[in-house]
Amino acid sequence: MRIITEPTEMQSIAESLRLQHQFIGVVMTMGALHEGHLSLVRLAKKKAGIVIMTVFVNPTQFGPDEDFERYPRPFEQDSALARSAGVDYLFAPSAEQMYPEGFSTSIDPGPMAGSFEGRLRPGHFNGVATVVVKLLGITRPHFAVFGEKDAQQVAVIRRVVADLNIGTVIEGAPIAREGDGLATSSRNIYLSFEERQQATALFRAIRHAQQETESGRNDLAAIAKEAESIVHAESAARTDYLCFVEEDTFEPAADAIPGKAYRLIMAVRLGSTRLIDNWKYVCGEDRGS
Ligand code: AMP
Q: Which of 44, 75, 218, 242 is least surrounded, with the fewest CB atoms within 10 Å of its CB?
């Protein structure tokens, strides 16, 4: 595995790989790698001849009161994990290399970026969209894998890539979870012992929604309320949002229509840690994912 820090060098490597007819897949991360990230690499490796992983804690997607400074950056450990997962190139630029003096472009992904995560984190998806388009330009992949853990991010990126005719295929990867159902996340290390136990409420809420929809109910708004009460039963937990949305538009959904796809999405605060999770439900199918 080669470690590259200079955007122009990464770009010319990607260009020459393309000239050699290599099929390139990219996995973008902010580092602090865990099983969720590695599952994305495994998925990429199934199709790609070359897998590029990017590790960049992107300052422009963090709000002023968010955890940019304290975000974990265990680079040695990350590069060892990336190497053993079979990554071919690890692209890890500095903020100065990505945003040199004079940088002034910001991509506005439109209305979908203004709800839920976008409403609570103003500017977040502008930062995400801009860095993703930059990283696609630098790594020139045929496809990019993003985790459905950040489902709204996947929807926003699909919108941007389609709207700007970028041509990279965007693949969604299933959510990797701990044994008790908690979605793996670089932020889970912030949880105290008690909060870590309380965090299982998110998956219990998902399970409830799964059981109820599988039993034939289609009153999504009511099911979401019940799921929220499961989260609130943990006294320390506060929900930023918990509801069903339509899969493609992220518009809130009250009742399920057969054949349509929905997502139960949630953001929950436990102490100073904010966790997100979701579950996809296709009305009329046996199981969601
Ligand atoms: P991050 O480093 O948190 O920006 O995440 C980098 C990529 O890994 C994003 O596409 C995330 O959606 C994905 N990811 C993070 N956690 C998980 C998880 N538990 N399961 C699947 N994908 C994940």
A: 75
Q: Which residues pair with 246 in a beta bridge?
A: 262
Residue 135 CB-half CA count within 13 A? 31
Q: Please write the tens of the pLDDT for every residue from 116-133.
A: 999 999 999 999 999 999
Per CATH, the homologous superfamily of domain 186-282 is: Pantoate-beta-alanine ligase, C-terminal domain (3.30.1300.10)
The encoded tokens of residue 54 equal: 């990017």
142 carries an active-site annotation: no
Sign of CA dihedral 215, 219, 221, 222: negative
Q: What local confidence, expressed as pLDDT, does residue 287 receive? A: 54
Q: What are the per-10-residue average pLDDT scores of the chain (289 residues)?
A: 98 98 98 97 97 98 93 97 98 98 97 95 97 98 98 96 98 97 95 96 97 96 98 92 95 95 97 96 74
| 3-state SS class at 9 | helix
Please give the C-alpha separations between residue 56 and each of 71, 99, 105, 123, 128, in angstroms, as whole numbers.
Answer: 11, 12, 18, 18, 11
Active-site residue, selected from the candidate residues 21, 37, 208, 232:
37
Q: Tell me where in the chain the CATH 3.40.50.620 domain(s) lie.
A: 2-173
Q: Could you tell which of 149, 185, 278 is best to mutate to test the pocket of ligand 1, judged by most ligand atoms within 8 Å of the CB? A: 149
Backbone region of residue 123 per phi and psi (left: phi > 0; alpha: psi in -120 to 50; beta: other values): left
- Ligand 1: residues with CB < 6 A are 29-30, 36-37, 39-40, 146-147, 149-150, 173, 175-176, 183-186
